[in-house]
Amino acid sequence: MLSNRKHHSKKAGLPPGTLVYTGDKTHDIEISTIEFDAEKIAERKIADIAECAGLRDSESIAWIDFNGVHDTKTLTQVGEMFGLHPLVLEDIANIGQRPKADIFTDYVFIVAKMFRANGEDGEIIHEQVSFILGKNYLLSFQEMSGDVFEPVRQRLRQGLGRVRTNGADYLLYALLDAIVDGYFVVLERFGEKIETLEERLLEDPNEQIRAELHAAKREMIFIRKAIWPMREVLASLARERTGLVAESSEIYIRDLYDHIIQVMDTVETHRDMVSGLLDTYLSSLSNKMNEVMKVLTIFASIFIPLTFIAGVYGMNFEFMPELAWKWAYFGVWGVMAGVAVALLIFFRRKKWL
Q1: Range of the domain at 344
Q2: What is the pLDDT of residues 191-236, one digit of tens each?
Q3: 150 lies in the same domain as 266
């Protein structure tokens, strides 16, 4: 189940550019860097943000990853160090920000949503990830520990693929590609969940399944809201000529654009399936109610003429010849039984039974 608390009321009444973290603090901020080129790589943890000052103009490519965005003091120092606009820093701290891409003169700012499935219980964990792409550096800002970037780190360490021989723009592509791959994994698990709900629904539609279907529908709405703007983000990267994204990287970004279109199609399919299952659940309830009403109507239809016969026979008239007959009682029972059987045969021929 998706869950993430946002405290947007913290920003109410504050001027634009005010740094306010809208989430819940989970741990102290951690800073790690990876400097690399085609021949070498250096990976380290940083305790003081001042150590990042020399990485902006480094000859090698520098990837600086900030794990935690609740420390507004650190964000302010990063903004001063890399010349970031106050509104950019505000969007980094605002974890409810819609995915987007802002093009500036000497850097590109990107906001994305990252999804990953918890291996233990299948819970879908989501967080906001922000990127600052510079000439020879890439800054990434995450909310919490854990991400989908480990395969990219392994390729950097082992010198596999093109990530070590290309610039920071290709590294950005690789990280965005890892995020999109994470969408496929989460949607695959979600598809399996929908299939399980469908089997249970067909076997025994009950209140618990209805609650799970409504929860699944809310999750799909949230996932769609987070993924849909990524199309605009990738289109902006492929379209804008900033000088920070090389032409050799644009073809990979266009390919990633195709992947996000495929993800969106899958999201729409899953959303339609969940809506269809909810309709199936309501139809099942309606069918059950119709079956009950049919049985009750049949009983009522049978007993209405029997009640009429019993009412006539039970009238206390003085001159009622049947009252003096020896077999009148049994004859009336026979008539009522015949009427009931005749009605049942009639209902059967009409296929009401």
Answers
A1: 289-349
A2: 988 999 888 888 888 888 888 888 888 888 888 988 899 999 998 8
A3: yes
